[in-house]
């Protein structure tokens, strides 16, 4: 039987960030991941899953020593953002230099971030990567948690971190209640070639029942799209011929970048909001999608998860250096309170946006367009909005 201090179930982006952040703390860490990531091919076409990484996550990834290798792979810096309501005057635009920033964020393939963290974790002396690992059982004892793997091996840990994504096995086995709701949207993702260069601007159009984001990639004529649509419509768009798809896409996007055409396959993800009633329990902490999932309309899901990681790293390091039991719920409550607060604000914000921008009711449309116009023109509003989007209001003190 192997013994560690921290057993992280799920070696995705967030779980690996926690592992790398604990290196050097004196805590022995194991990451149990069900699959082994493949190295990235430099000449491969951009992957379909990308994330808009904000300044707060950039700070964490820099601190973890992976930011330069992410940039050396493939990352696309964006300098502007534009959001508009189709067929109306509602529009807001942000530009980094006028707000005093060098950039607003980066669009990065999830695999690039994941692999950089995986390689870093491999180099961490205090971290053991156990992959592929298939979990059979977990039991929470008074002083330790006991994990049994399907191959019969066992592991004990003083705290288990559930970082195993939206359908978290750990959350279910710990009987943590979950609030969940259907966003009545599926997200269609694809890579699109644009006639005009994207000029490093992230764009998003609200149209009828849909939300269409064009995220600029390193190639000035390639964007990754996240097109949130009612489920049947998303399935219809996935099955449509390339020609019909391109036509619908160009209409929804107001031909903002000239004629756009599909460059990749299309994949569809159902969107569900989730909120675990507890982010911590006796010898347990949940991070990332295991604790919460949100609509991708503001591109904040993994950014929120990275800040969970940052807060948990700080909490576990502090408890350990003070000689306290890192698995006591009493001590993990501070982590739970702080992260629940951020998650609730984000979930409520996304819900508000989702409701306000749903449908073509003329009164609602007028209200949101006036809101966008006011936010675009009133002094002092944009700097606050951009600070929020960059995650600068949600940074744990040690990263500030
Ligand atoms: C269409 C779409 C677009 C998005 N765009 C953005 C964006 O622009 N910006 C942003 O911030 N967020 C975005 N998100 C959200 C973001 O992708 C997620 O929040 C993020 O991937 C969650 O990371 P995670 O590490 O918590 O979970 P995951 O990425 O789900 O990782 C979980 C890991 O756990 C492993 N695992 C699962 N079960 C087990 C088990 N039983 N045993 C062992 N291992 C297990 C999995 O193999 C995986 O490696 C988007 C989401 C969607 C659907």
UniProtKB/TrEMBL annotation:
FAD-binding domain sequence ranges: 4-341
Cofactor(s) this protein requires: FAD
Keywords noted in UniProt: FAD, Flavoprotein, Monooxygenase, Oxidoreductase
Metabolic or biological pathway: Cofactor biosynthesis; ubiquinone biosynthesis
Statement: the UniProt record of this protein carries the keyword Oxidoreductase: yes
Oxidoreductase found in the keyword field: yes
PANTHER family: UBIQUINONE BIOSYNTHESIS MONOOXYGENASE COQ6, MITOCHONDRIAL (PTHR43876:SF7)
Family of the protein in this entry: Belongs to the UbiH/COQ6 family.
Protein name: 2-octaprenyl-3-methyl-6-methoxy-1,4-benzoquinol hydroxylase
